[in-house]
Write a structure and sequence with these properties.
- The protein has 116 residues and is an all-alpha fold.
- 36% of the residues lie in helices and 0% in strands.
- The protein is globular.
- The protein starts with 14 loop residues before the first helix and ends with a helix.
Length: 116
């Protein structure tokens, strides 16, 4: 069954958007989606930039994430994607240990930022 174009997640046109979506798919999509309300093993990341950590309704965050006390911005996302345990010790992102490629992190963050 084919979905109508308006039902599909919207991504920016061009190679930058495609590269960001590809990097997200490779590193994040196993557990996360960007569609609002579509929680999987991890919470959906729709409008993650500007959201208080651990605050998404209808998702059972770890106590560490609920008590993190910060709002996600691009710098915090970069640090978290690189090394989740350093930013929020006791998070539930196991077995994910981080993404060392700063280029891939930058692409993923740009992709996530456009879901505002």
């Amino acid at each position: 069954m084919l979905a109508s174009p308006s039902a599909l997640p919207q991504t920016p046109q061009g190679t930058d958007g495609a590269a960001g979506q590809q990097a997200f798919n490779n590193a994040c999509r196993t557990c996360h989606m960007v569609r609002e309300g579509d929680n999987r093993l991890g919470p959906n990341l729709h409008k993650i930039v500007g959201r208080k950590a651990g605050s998404l309704p209808d998702y059972a965050f770890s106590g560490a994430m609920k008590e993190a006390g910060f709002v996600w911005d691009e710098e915090k996302l970069d640090r978290f994607i690189a090394n989740p345990d350093e930013v929020v010790p006791g998070n539930s992102m196991k077995p994910y240990g981080g993404l060392p490629s700063s280029d891939d992190r930058k692409k993923i963050i740009a992709f996530l930022a456009q879901t505002r």
